[in-house]
Every structure is written in C-alpha cells, then in structure tokens.
Automatic annotation (TrEMBL):
Origin organism lineage: Bacteria, Bacillati, Actinomycetota, Actinomycetes, Kitasatosporales
EC number: 2.7.13.3
Main EC class the enzyme belongs to: transferase
Protein name, UniProt field: histidine kinase
Superkingdom per UniProt: Bacteria
Keywords for this protein: ATP-binding, Coiled coil, Kinase, Membrane, Nucleotide-binding, Phosphoprotein, Transferase, Transmembrane, Transmembrane helix, Two-component regulatory system
Amino acid sequence: MLAAGAPGVAGGVADVSESQRLLRLSQLNTAAIALSHSLADERADMAAYVATGRGARKPPAAAHGNTVGRGVSEEERARVDRQTAEVTADAAVLDTGDSTDLIRVTGDLSSALASLPKVRQGALAGPGDAKAAFDAYTPLIDALDAVGGALARALPSRASDADTAAGPALATAVEDASATRGQLVAALTAGGTSAALAGGAQQSRTGELAALADFNAAATQQARTRYAQTVTGADVATAESYLHRLTAKGYLTAADNRLRTADVDAALAARVDRMRAVQSSLAGADTTRLTRLRDDDVTALEIHAAVVACCALIALGLGVRTARSLTRPLGRLLRFATAHADGDRTVTVPVDSHDEFAAVARAVDRISAEAAGLRTEAAEREQERERLSAAREKAVAERAQLRRRFAAERDQLEQRLTAERDELRQRLTTERDDLLLQLHATRQEARDRQGGLEAEKQALTARLVALENTARTTYVSLSLRTLALVERQLALIEGLEEREQDPDQLQTLFRLDHLATRMRRNSESLLVLAGAETGGGAQARPVPLLDVVRAAVSEIERYERVRIASLPRTRLAGFAADDTSHVLAELLENATAFSPPDADVRISGWLLENGEVMLSIEDTGIGMPQARLAEANALLADAHPDDSAVTGGLGLHLVARMAGRHGVRVQLREHKQGGVTAVIVLPHALLARPDDDGRGEQRHDTAELTDVTPQLPEPRRAVAPEPPAEHARPQEAPVPADAAEAPRTTGKGLPKRVPRSSGLSGEPAARLGGGPVDADALRRRLGGFAQGLQAGRRDAEAEAKTSEPSEEARG
C-alpha cells in the first residue's frame, strides 16, 4: 500500500516545489518590472542631461514640476538602488532547479545590475554623447525584461496561460515606447543636432508596433480589452500624434525642433505610464494565479498523504487479524502430528471444520495409516531378499565356470589374431615402399614444372616491362609531335596577326594564340607524367621572379582574374624557371577553376628570414574537406608519386613531380575567409645570387602589383605602319634596364618563343576592351613582341625536327 501511494505523494511534492518556484519567479518578475520602469526613467533623464552638455546649457522647462535635462536626483537614485538591491537578493536566492534557462537569466541579471554604478558614472562624467549614455542603460533593462520571458518558458502545461505567454511581447513594447520617449526628448533637448537619437527613436517606434502586434496575437481577449481601455484618452492621442510626426523620418526638422520639449515629454510620459500600468496588472495577475496554483498543489498533497496513511492503517489491522487466524490452528496441528509420529494413534483429528488446517490434519492421519502398511510390506520384502540371496550365490558359481571356459576360447583367438596381424604388417610395409617411390617421382615432376613456370614468369615480366617502355616512349613521341604542331600553329597565327587589319579579328587571333599556349602547357604536362624531361627550353641565365609569375599567369584560361600583389625582388635560376612557372600555372588554374567566376585570385610572395622565398596563391572558392585536403598535401609532399594513383587530380600529381625535381615545397591550406591557399616555398638552390650573370643585374621592384594584363591602346586614326620600337609592358611595375640582355631575345631585346618552354619574358594575352580599337595602333603596340615570337618559333621548329623520334620508335 505504501509502495503504491509513494509515487503519488512524490508527484505531489514535486508539484508543490514547482509551483513554489514559479511563484518566487513571478514575484521576481514583478520586482524586475518595477525596477525596469525606474531604470527607463533614469535613462531618459540621463540622456537629456547629457544632451544639454551635462549642465553646460540651460534646459527647457518641463511639466509636472520636473525639469528636462536636470539629471537624476539623489532621492531617485536611492530609490533605484533599493529596488536594485531587492531584485539582486531575490535573484540570488531563487530556486532555479535544473533549469539552465533560469540559471542563465538570473546570472545575466546579477551581472547587469552590478554594472549600474559604472553606467551612471559614465553618463555623468564620461566622454560619450547622449546616445552612448542612453545605450549604456539598455542592457540592464533587457536583462530585467528577460525574467518575464523565463517565466513564460518555465510554465508547465498545467499552469500555462496566454496572458503570461504574451507578457514578454508587452514588456518589449513598453521598453520600446520608453526608449522612443527618452531618445526624442534628448534629441529635442539637444536642439535636433543628434541624428543618432532621432534614428534610434524611429527604430524603437517600429519595434514597439511590432511587439504590440505580437501581444495582440498571443494575449486573451480580456487582456487586449484591458490594454485598449487603459491606454486611451486625450494624452494618449496627443502622444500618438507626436510620435507619428517625430518618428516619420530618421531626423528632426526645423519645425520639429520648435516644439516645446516639456509638452512632448509630458504626453509621451503619460502614454508610457498607462502602458506600464497594464504590464504591472498582468504581472500581478500572474502572481495571484500562481499563488492559487501553489495552494491547490499543497491541498492536493495533504489529501493524498492522508488517504495513503488511512489505507496503511487499515492494511495493518487486517494483517494482524489474518496472522492470528493462522497461528492458532497451526499450533493444534503441530501437537497432533507430533503424537502420531511417536506412535500414539489414540489422538484424533484436532479440528472439525472444513478449512485447510482440517484437510492437513486428515492428511496426516492417512499418512500414519499408510506408514503402518508400509512397515508390514517391508517385513515381507525382507523374506524375499533372503530368498534372492541364495539364488545369487548359485549364480556366482555358474559365472565362475563360464569365466574359465571363456578364458580358454580367448587364448585361442589371440593366437589366431597375432598370426593375421603379422601377415598384414608385412603386406602394408611392401605397399608403403611402393607409394614412397611414386611420391618421389611426383615431387621431381612438380619441381620440373615449377622451373618451367618460373622461366615463363620471367619472360612475361620482361615482356611487360618492354610494353611499358614502349607505351611510355609512344606517349613521349606523341607529346613531342604535339608540341611541334603547336609551335607551328603559333607561327601560323602570328603570320595572320601581322596581316590582319580588323581589330576584332586581331583580338580573336590573340585568343587563339593564348589557347595554343595552353595546349603547349598540356603537352608538356603529358611529358612530365610520361617521365620525360622538359628542360629543352631552360634559360641560361637567372630570370626575375616577376617574369616567372607573369609567364604562369599567361598560360591559364582565366588569366584576367589573377591579381599579383607584392613580390620579393629576386631572381630564379634559369634551369628551374620553366618548371617553377609550370607549377604556378597548374595551381593558378585550380584556383580559378574552383572559385566564383567573378572573384579574383591573388598571388603574393615574401622573402623569409632563412633566405627562401615563399609564394601564396589565394582563392575564395568553396574550399576542400579536411580529408581531401590531407590527401592532397600527402600527394604534394611525395616527390615521386605512384603512377597507378593518377585517376583524378592530374594537376596536383603534376605539381608534385615538377616540385620534387627542384626541392620546391607545396602545401594547400584552408583559408579563414573561405577558399584554399596554396603555399609554395622556393629553396636556396633555386635563387640566383646577384653576381650570377656577371653584371650584377638590378632586381625588379614589384611592390603592390595589381594587374598583369596590358590594356589595349585608345582608338586613333590609322597611320602608315612603322617598325615597333618596343613591346608594351604593364604599367604596374618597372622593368629592369638590362632585362633585354636575357638569353634567346631578338635584336630589339624582346623574348622569343622556345619549344617546350613557358616563355618567361612573355606577357599574357591583352584584356579585351569595350570600344573600337585601331588595328595599326594595336600592331605597333605589340609588333616587337610578335617579331620576337616569330624568331622563337623558327628556332622551335628546327629543334623539334631534330628531336622527332625515328620511325622505329614511332612503331
């Protein structure tokens, strides 16, 4: 009974504890509402006081005996301090239970109220303006209003109430109305010079209307009627007209500034007071309702406990009576059974009823009778046992006789089995020898077959190696042919460029030239993947790092999206310039391919303290998962990646190979703002010393480069063509004076195309202009570069003919 009633009692105790906690929280909410109203008034007075220059200007007179802009009196501060101390004490002793929401709200409330002296000091003597003083009070008021929201969320289903749920919305509306009043009065006190106060008042007015809409949607009809009947009257109508006029715009006009601040403050204060009265009445109703709920829970618990106690007493009485009715018959039954066990058959059945004890007594009587019969039967069986014993002795004699006869027969059988076993052993030995001979012959035959299979395996392995070499040679041959064809294609395109007069056709030919350059890079990539060297076009002298980066930019599809930031003024060894440019081109291609089409890709560089050069390629794409990023970095760290793994990501595989040739370290990193950053570190061995070319060539000054694509010239009237004087360079960075002395240049100092090289002194294709362009002007602009390319292509064709594979290699 107690176990059955315990859960109900425990549930009642839990309900009482919960209703008591809700009542304490409701009382804390009522005190917090009163304190928030006082702090809102203090905030408005402080803001108006700061708006007057902290007493520097005489404020206008206000209604109701107060003076706008005079600050807060000592009596008002003392009253607010008392309210603050009470709310802080109530929040500290509030039973939050296991609710993380209540713990957070009370903690925030205590922290906010602790900062009130600092907020006052900042408003009275701080450097901030009226808007800053006003905003400093807002977190305190928000922390107080949060108690009402915590109360609405903490209500269980049995205590839910629509008006309580609508309380946070009404609190927000009251706070926004008070904020609107304080900011408008401060703005008018300052003479309308603070646009921040006027704009803040407009935002608060908008928030108030939205909060009132939420209140009307959640509250009951009775609460809405109470609000409509309370917030009404001439003062409210006047306040509404002021609000409509002063918050229609985010600033105050000259006509607005002519309004009497005292009248505006009085009207708005009257409206806010009526709204606060509705809020306080709803909070008081919550306290009354939760007090009634607590009393009902206490009454229910008392009734439940009384019922359980009565039931327990009744059950105890019934148990005692039942026990006595059992022990008395058991005593009589015990005495009856003891007498029968001692052989006293004169004792009769001790009960004359028909209950269970009488049945047990009769059963004991029957058992005694059966025991007497069993004793008689046992005597008869003893006689039978003696007769069986005599028969057993006779059987023993017969068994001894049979044992002697069986022993004689066993000896005869053992002799016969021994003879047969010897004969079988001899026959098995002969057969075993024959099987051993056959097994030896079989093993020898297996060894012979294994030797033949090994020889066949070696032959197949040699054939497989030959096929792989043939395939690799074929790939190399096809790549070299493709390179030669691309160079010829470039020569044809250049001839068309020299004869073309139409600017649009010239732009199309330049695009074809750029596409052929990318095709050449793809062919070089195939040579690298096939294991062939691509250093046929290596520079003999050091190359400026700027030219290496420009060459890489010119070999990608979306070159116009690349922006070059600052680069160190250093040069790269000629033997590594092509491969380094190729590595940069592959990484730039990936960056432009996996980033938005309208986003820029940024490349920059630094000279490290240890003398190495670090380059960074940043994009703003979708980035890479961590697993894929780790896999890519593992591939880039391997100087000799496995060829069997080249199923996807050929660009990274190619970067790993070419970077591994020269000890260049490449790593992909996740960018904080999104996208991926590729970091390239050039070691000491690839950086040229200043005296490598024998003349101490000056380094490029590449500080703050923003673009690498030359702009087309302005349209002008065509004139007679004349030999170009120089190739157009980008204006973002100066070109060193001795850059024309680089190897493989024309007579005018311009770079030539070299087969299987990246054209490290070349420029990327010109960016297309939006208006008409004069063909002769464009040809004069790029004439020097075209002549250099023509000479380079002739050299490339000659070298390609000498490097073409023989007919036997072609298969």
